[in-house]
Amino acid sequence: MDITINIKNILDELPHNVRLVVAGKGRTLNELNKTVQAGVKIIGHNYVQEADKTYQAMAQRVELHLIGHLQTNKAKKAARIFDMIQTVDSVKLAKEIDTQCHAINKKMPVLIGVNVGRESQKSGVFPEHVIELIKEISLLAHIKIVGLMTMAPRFDNKEHARPYFVKTKKLFDVIGQLTIDNVAVGYYRKTHIAKDEKGLFSPGSNITAFSNSLLSFGVCVCADIDKREIFKEYASQGARIIFEAAAPGLYGDQEDRNWQSGFNWWKNECRTKLSAYARTYKIHIAVATQAGRTIDEDFPGGGYVFDPKGEIIHATPDWKEGILYADIRIL
């Protein structure tokens, strides 16, 4: 089957919250270019040298992930060309990646390679040592642990591999309940796509609150503010605070009457709706909006924290970039 058709068929079958990584081992640049034209966003390479050729040819068009074992003496080049390293399995390797990323002012997302099948021919840390390894690696400033990677043993019957992936997922969930600095607890994918957001986001299918040992919380982006049911669902799952990030662009001149009207509309839209959600569902809501100007848009900025009564208890000035620090008691 033609590569382009095959890739498009695979992408059509995948859930929206799954990202396809194409393995580039032994493939020509022409073959990889066809996968990109078909919609591939990530190419995985087993070897640094092979990946370097892809990096030079198409680094601006795709993400490059290292999916093979990394030797410490190749970490310098790996830090430069890869967007993610999926096979970190030792403190020694992590420290070398951290050192090389520090030199180029980069923070590298990594996956912990788990040898879930305890196979002698495979690299990776055994499941019972993963949490200990994560705690040590999380202290490194130029590495961000974003998940686990595993390969199940090979079986003629694919169903026999399923328990190994289930075991790894359970381990991932356990880690998500721990409070470990520098470790992502999950990913958010928008479930509501507004008309002007189509093509910018791939919608997700589930609204799932994030949790750690301290609290549960929700995340919303842009036009999610129009969907009361998203806030309701987060609250029903036990979320005590919801973070909303928005970029309300206003076109035209700041002195223009229509522009001012648009600004006032946004402030009223933001405050009225979020205040109502906070009050109705007895939750805190923290909202941050983009500040500054692009070629043809102004962004008013403004950060607010609403309490469960729907009242604004902390706020930043409009039109100014800044960070809002707020001490709030969440029961």
Explain what this protein looks like in three dimensions.
The protein has 2 domains: 3-176, Alanine racemase (TIM Barrel), CATH 3.20.20.10; 195-315, Nitrilase/N-carbamoyl-D-aminoacid amidohydrolase. The chain has helices at 3-13, 29-37, 48-58, 75-81, 91-103, 130-137, 162-176, 228-236, 257-281; strands at residues 21-23, 42-45, 63-66, 84-88, 108-114, 143-150, 210-211, 216-221, 241-246, 250-251, 284-289, 291-293, 297-300, 303-306, 312-315. The chain has 9 helices and 15 strands. With 331 residues, it is of the alpha/beta class. The strands form 3 sheets. A 6-stranded parallel sheet has the order 1-2-3-4-5-6. It has a 6-stranded mixed sheet with strand order 7-8-9-11-14-15, covered by helices on one side.
